[in-house]
Amino acid sequence: MNIIFFDSTEKSSLYRDSFNVINKNVSPFKEMIKKEDISSYSISINDEEKISLKDTFLFLINIKESGSLYVLFNKNDFNKEEIIKKITELKDIKINNNVISIDKHNRLFDILETYHPLIYLYIEKHDYYLNKDELKEIYKGNSPFFIIEKEIEVEEPIIVTNKEDGKKEKKKFSFKNFILPIKKYKYHFLFLTVSSFLVGFAFSLGLFNSILNKGISVLFYICVLVGAFLQTFIYYDYFKEKKIKDKLFIYSLSFSVLGGLFSMGAYSLYHSIDKTEGKENVSFILLLMLSLVVSLIFVVISVLIGYLINNKKKKK
Description:
The chain has nine helices and eleven strands. The strands form three sheets. It has a five-stranded mixed β-sheet. It has a four-stranded antiparallel β-sheet with strand order 2-1-4-5, with no helix packed on it. The chain is elongated and about 80 Å long. The protein is α+β, with helices and mostly antiparallel strands.
């Protein structure tokens, strides 16, 4: 899919995916959010004829406990009173968990799709917003989605001075704020852990079998490359939307290291039950340390490759 926005000077912005995570300060989305004039912009979807946004209607739906949904319609396909009447019927559905949130969004999209929206702009806000993967799962239409992610900040201990007695107090650590990013990006962290684990564990087995002159070691080295490729792709995908300074990057590195530690545990278990002849000639501790070191080295390589490729593309 190709979605191109044009400003009054014909400067264009191209989006190739059906679901795009964007920055809230990018035009014309920032103008939509601030309710500013967007009539100087135009849009072309899949190389079709440009549509001036002055010929469109931007419809805002605030979904309580979820987020804000901006829907851009061609004025010819838009019946405001009729849409409002249908959407109002969903008002009684109170969102208090993710299952209900998904169901309500699903019903909402069923209503909106009958009026052929040009694009959706979804802003994650409250406790039960839907992330990009969840929206992909439930939305079956053809209109492109633009998503502004909720800004999640991890509460850090800070020093606060008590003016009354001059004592310094530490702000308490918030477990809820700490765990929120893990819940939101659980699949991202899971795949990072698995890929790092695969690199470390497969390398241990490969080196072990190499020392014993067993041909099966080649298979394990291939697994190392598969894990490294997966890990590189994940970091490449991460740097498309995020930066190194983002706190999510620290979480990502932590789960990559966790995968390496898991690989050490898995190899320890394997070593304890393995009955291979000659294994006493192979240093268990050395292999264990090497598996962790190699796993960490590949994390660094994956991060560098993912970052440099994205950085090079952005400069073009």
